[in-house]
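Protocol step 4 of 6.
Sequence for Carbohydrate ABC transporter permease (Paenibacillus psychroresistens) entered exactly as in the expression construct, tag removed. Do not edit the line below.
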Amino acid sequence: MLLKKILPQTLINTLFILFSLSCIIPLIAIISISFSNETEIMKNGYKLLPQSFDLNAYAYILYKPLQILNAFKVSLFISVFGTFISVLIMAGIAYPLAREDYKWKNKLSFYVFFTMLFNGGLVPTYILISNYLHLKNTIWVLILPYLAAPWFILILRSFMQKIPHSIIESCMIDGASEFRTFFQIVIPLAKPGLATVGLFTLLTYWNDWWLSLLYIEKESLVPLQFMLYRMMNNIQFLTSSSNQLPPGMVNAVLPSESARMAMAILAAGPMLLVFPFFQKHFVRGLTVGAVKG
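Step 5 output, structure tokens:
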């Protein structure tokens, strides 16, 4: 009997250990390659441990540290401020959709769902933002397009529907306003859902480079992801056009693969530090309501 209990648990633990290693090993490989010599990578391929420690990739990326620091500040601002405003707006839309006594609930839900299926298109959106809203080359053009995601609104609505309506009715009987009920009762009870949506929204803002490519020309407003994207394009162009390089650089080996991995570390590092703070609410947000008893 003891063997029958230990064997399944050992098998489960082994599977989870292997799964964890499959997630950790690629991260270790990325860090190792970022500190490897480009010539060694070209000769021997990827290794879990760098054969020769080299900082050329980071030296190339951080050649202008103030420029990188400014890009990091822009990304940090649009990610933190955009996520806060976005979650607040989406929660404000989801709350009436979750209320049983809201008579326009079905029509508004259909409107939110309809925007998941159709959008205005790239050209009309560009004309609207550039010519009519005059948001081009402003910080707001990196924030406003992602303020309300229909899918996240429906997720928050599902969380808020699990809040007993009797609690809201009790607040009304006690004389609480709709705003006070929303901010002091609904928001704290929907914290797991807000944390889940907030994390995905934060990742959306942090990883975005597409809006910068379309609407940003000022160097002071370039976010980190777009700057790294331009650096990688420059490296690829110089590598493929080595015959056009100055005579002193003809034989130089540019850090292509190592720079790519170094950029991944710089881009993903802050999010790896943020995730543990969301983990408790994030896991709860994914599992709440899955099992009813």
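Step 6, annotate. The chain has two domains: 21-54, 64-287.
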